[in-house]
């Protein structure tokens, strides 16, 4: 399965969300500790789970808001988001299901799958050396998941196009967009996502890529393995830090969109700022993640609290 951290969004505007930190304090006091324990256990076995959860969280919020619609399985009568090409390499569903089962045993029909994704991602980021931050909860699970709703631009999109998506459809600034791209500090990209940069129509590599990196990737992608992968951050690929920004300033961005962030006049200043200030990136990333997690959420009596994350409750 291919895995790549991408977080390009096409989504409805921000909703006025009635979320609050500690939402389950009375209804399910151990909710957050149950999520944290499961994530820690998985992280101890597989540090790449951070990249997986970041991608799942982004790709969930990218379609209908943060409503866990990405978790729904397809049926004979409906092809769900999960089966779109953009979500082919999303993984970590089994971890979410594991957490949900534990929570159902402790507090039946109380904690939403949408909140589980948000909390699990927050915990994984902290375990990977990223910021520790509180996230408001109280999301409800959506009642729709359709492949036709998935519109997520690819890694060759222009910076200007991505900026428009973030500003007009998400209400997020260009700086917040660059901050969220910091999720590429973890995870990998497969050769099929950047092969175009290794050899253009004239047979020459992309001049915006460091020659040494280009040669390394040409060798990797010429191997007999089926679509091999390379870290998006070539130096600290399992740490949520500001190294990603340093790498793209040195022309070591693997994806075209990553490298263009360091070259585009509207974004390169933010890249330089984060590259030189780890603390500013960490704080900015936490704030941007919290803001992104509030996009078009369902609250109150909207949606439902699924008993199982992969299927809607019986509507009868």
Please provide a written account of the structure:
Ca(2+) 1 binds at residues 60, 63, 65, 67, 69, 81. Keywords: Calcium, Disulfide bond, Heme, Hydrogen peroxide, Iron, Metal-binding, Oxidoreductase, Peroxidase, Secreted, Signal. It comes from Psophocarpus tetragonolobus (Winged bean). Its EC number is 1.11.1.7. The protein is mainly α and 316 residues long. The protein folds into two domains: 31-153, Peroxidase, domain 1 (Orthogonal Bundle), CATH 1.10.520; 159-284, Peroxidase, domain 2. The protein has helices at residues 31-45, 49-64, 93-106, 113-127, 159-170, 174-180, 195-198, 211-221, 243-249, 256-261, 268-276, 278-292, and strands at residues 188-190, 229-231. The longest helix is centred in the first third of the chain and has 16 residues, at 49-64. The radius of gyration is 19 Å and the shape is globular. The chain starts with 30 loop residues before the first helix and ends in a 24-residue tail after the last helix. Mean pLDDT is 91; it is low at 1-17.
């Amino acid at each position: 399965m291919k895995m790549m951290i991408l977080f390009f969004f096409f989504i409805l505007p921000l909703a006025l969300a009635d979320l609050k930190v500690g939402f389950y304090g009375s209804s399910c006091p151990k909710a957050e500790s149950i999520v944290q324990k499961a994530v820690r256990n998985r992280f101890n076995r597989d540090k790449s789970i951070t990249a997986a959860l970041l991608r799942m969280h982004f790709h969930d919020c990218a379609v209908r808001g943060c409503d866990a619609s990405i978790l729904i399985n397809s049926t004979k009568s409906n092809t769900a988001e999960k089966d779109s090409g953009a979500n082919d390499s999303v993984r970590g569903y089994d971890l979410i299901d594991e957490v949900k089962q534990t929570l159902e045993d402790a507090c039946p029909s109380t904690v939403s799958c949408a909140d589980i994704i948000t909390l699990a991602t927050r915990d994984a980021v902290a375990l990977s050396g990223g910021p520790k931050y509180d996230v408001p909860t109280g999301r409800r699970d959506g009642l729709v998941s359709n492949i036709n709703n998935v519109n997520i631009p690819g890694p060759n999109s222009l910076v200007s196009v991505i900026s428009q998506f973030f500003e007009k459809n998400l209400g997020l600034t260009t700086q917040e967009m660059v901050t969220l791209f910091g999720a590429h500090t973890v995870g990998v990209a497969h050769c099929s996502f950047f092969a175009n940069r290794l050899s253009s129509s004239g047979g020459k590599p992309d001049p915006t890529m460091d020659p040494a990196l280009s040669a390394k990737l040409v060798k990797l992608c010429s191997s007999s393995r089926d679509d091999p992968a390379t870290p998006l951050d070539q130096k600290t690929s399992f740490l949520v830090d500001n190294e990603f920004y340093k790498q793209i300033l040195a022309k070591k961005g693997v994806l075209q969109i990553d490298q263009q962030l360091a070259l585009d006049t509207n974004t390169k200043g933010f890249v330089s700022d984060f590259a030189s200030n780890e603390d500013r990136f960490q704080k900015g990333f936490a704030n941007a993640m919290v803001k992104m997690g509030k996009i078009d959420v369902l609250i109150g009596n909207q949606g439902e609290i699924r008993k199982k994350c992969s299927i809607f409750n019986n509507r009868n």
